[in-house]
Design a protein that fits this description.
There is one protein chain. The protein is built from eleven helices and no strands. The protein is an all-alpha fold and 209 residues long. The two termini are 16 Å apart. Helix 4 packs across helix 7.
């Protein structure tokens, strides 16, 4: 079992249970569920302003665009982000750029997608990226590897399983749609799916924090 110190020194309190589930207990499903529960609380408190407007810019990218066209669209993206500035703005822009590069490099296409669908795709990417940065902040990997609690390969394998469970969770889609329906966060609700059962090892950590 991984010692508590690596988590208390690296992971914020709200996401510590989720991080332990993923990297200590190897339970990516429970980790994803706990992480999305905490993300819902953040969204309800902060809202998610600007995603809808940024999605409009993403819609303009087409496969086969030249570099100049892509650069122009990126400039539009930053202009919209400045107008819609908020606590999530930087992450929304980063995820939007990633979607645009996917289209530009022909790895995926948004052609034929309705505007609402593009909005949901973008916000799902934003929420998943935020959850991952909270559950696996930069300082966690070196601490776990240096203390020989996990190898680099196992850390990456657990991270990948966590991402897969996040992507497959119905709560991710629900949160994205709720955040778009009301960017203030007022309509965000808690998860409807049941939480995977808590383990004895996890219960030991509750009193520790």
């Amino acid at each position: 079992m991984v010692d508590n110190d690596e988590f208390t020194s690296s992971v914020g309190r709200d996401f510590r249970k989720a991080s332990r589930a993923v990297y200590d207990l190897g339970d990516a499903e429970r980790g994803a569920h706990l992480a999305l529960r905490e993300v819902a609380r953040v969204l309800k408190r902060e809202g998610l302003r600007g995603a809808r407007e940024v999605a409009v810019v993403c819609k303009n990218v087409r496969r086969g665009d030249d570099v100049a066209q892509l650069e122009q669209t990126v400039s539009q993206l930053y202009a919209v982000a400045r107008v819609q500035a908020g606590p999530w703005s930087d992450l929304i822009v980063k995820c939007a750029q990633s979607m645009m590069v996917d289209v530009f490099s022909r790895r995926r296409t948004l052609s034929g997608s309705g505007h609402g669908e593009i909005e949901v795709l973008l916000v799902k990417r934003v929420i998943a990226a935020f959850a991952e940065t909270q559950v696996s902040p930069p300082g966690l990997l070196p601490r776990l590897v240096e203390s020989e609690k996990l190898s680099f390969q196992e850390f990456e394998a657990r991270s990948q399983r966590f991402r897969e469970h996040l992507s497959a969770s119905p709560d991710l889609n629900r949160l994205a749609r709720q955040a778009l329906a009301d960017p203030t966060g007022a309509r965000i609700t808690q998860q409807r799916t049941s939480t995977p059962k808590q383990t004895q090892r996890e219960m030991v950590h509750i009193a520790i924090g």
